[in-house]
Model the fold of this input.
Amino acid sequence: MSQRHTWYRLAIARPDGPTEIVVAPGAHLGDAIALGVRHAGRGSWAAAAANAIAAEVPLGGSVGKNDLVVRGPDPDFSLGLRWPLGVVPSFDSARKAAAIRPGFARRTGDHLVLEAQLGGRELDELLLSVLERLPAADNIEIKVADHHDDHGTTEIWLSPRLGVKKAIHWLDDHDVEWLHNGHLELAIYLRKQRSTLRLTEHKTLAWVSDDADLTAQVATWLGEAVPELDTLSTLAQVGHFHWRPAATSARPRLIDRLRRQGLRKVDAWPGPRPPVKALTSGSAP
Done:
């Protein structure tokens, strides 16, 4: 690895053994996670992350010797959900994160809101399952967060008008780039129904609507996958990292790909996204 890199401490969970602690380098966190998962074997995943301290970096690590360091198993590690790709709790928050359970809850406010937390690829499956049963999917909006490659600017990109079938096709074609990147947030707008289906940057599925009948249907669909809870805890409430898989694009290439897919930039600002007053309105005129 000739480019500049950072060292990370990772807890790598295995399906058939104790969680293992490793220290790995990467141009970004996703690169380091790929090394850790490759070392741990098939079916493993990142359960926690932290920036490595100087004492954990091997001799020569700062000048390009990039071998993964195995610190050994941690049978007492507090293991929770298999987190969706793109987010991972911090080590300091691992115990709190382990208490997060899959489910969905109704939230109160100016609109009808449902939010669901699932693990692993189940989130992809639920997103597509809900989308294919919706009466419309007028536009896809992609928010590229300021923390994507530490760029410092948030950008909003909006697709041309499309429909449910084309939206599913786009998501199938770009699942790694759009769905598994923790630096992106994806929204699907239903303009007549004044509703939004959103894959948040914390990898929860959120439904925001002014249509009570459609919201009742969406709640039924969510309930087919996860139980309804009185309150829902998510990674947004504990310390966590956003990351993108090693196969995803660096920011300039991602922006170029969005443009070539026909999306247009409709807004941008320095720093994180400000509070949104009307999530159902969308960015397009």
